[in-house]
Amino acid sequence: MLTPRRIEIFKAIVDEYIKTAEPVGSKALQQQYHLPYSSATIRNDMQELEEMGYLEKTHTSSGRVPSTAGYKFYCENLLDDAHIDQKMEVAIKEAFDATNLNVEEAVRHSCEILSEMTNMTTGAVGPDASEQRLKHIKLFPLDDRNAICVFITNSGHTETKNFYFEEAVSLKDIETCTDILNEKLKNVRIDQLVEKMQALKPELSQVVERHELLFAAFVKAFVRFANENVYFSGKDKMLYQPEFEDIDKLKKLMTMLDDSSVWKNMTGKANAVAVTTKGAELTWINDLAVVRSKFHVNDEETGEFMVVGPSRMNYDKIVAMVEYAAKMIETIYNEGGGEK
Q1: Global pTM value
Q2: Which of 42, 62, 78, 160 has the highest local Cβ count within 10 Å?
């Protein structure tokens, strides 16, 4: 059974393994954590914890490491109520104060900050716009080869895409094309825009001189709008984690990071799942751990931040950071602090 002493020993093992990435023995626990128990008592309790499934013994050492079940128990019961790192709090607040970011930009920027602060790969599943309907398109020419396109949906979600044309496109062509699309595509579901665009091709070809260039740019943007709502920052951070020195394991992880469907349904693929008191969800898949926290942009749109790394991660610090980033997005965009 789990006694207070065994829980104390178990927590010390997890904390030490997170710091060192080395199997933990009874001698290290006595030296580093000054536990008031004999080596024999600690070894006996470590054996009991292993038999209970919370620890595992490696082949190369007499020490123990936490199991997936052990990490789950640790995160559900032993996490310290850590405060957000002050440097990250200041960095995120200044990022939002510095410019009027739309939701997509704010989520991506927050991912970059999280990656730098945690030294791990971070990601976000942004609001899913595929089932929303197009309300309006605005196209802002920068010059005859570059433009910024803004899509606005019926829920108020705003998506910004950069257009680059291989040949010059006139202002008249841009205005005519935009007017036709606004007239014909209003209230069309985002995931049906490409199909509707195909039907408009003959009409565009009659009145827009550079219709091929504009058509291609809009189709590409509509496809991305409907599908590209998973973003990662700091993928290279995985290269510096000892758990992923194995090339085959690293390749599998990189393949996962490139498959957006994996991250939209993490729970169904997990070996174990835990939920913190503030609602963050922790998922373990083999040696991989994912810390996620949802955010609500409005009544209809939700997304989530995540930190992806080895099971041996600093859960106290990372859970607090992910929860704070999600809270900041909610606070700003539910109160109208950013561009809707």
Answers
A1: 0.71
A2: 42
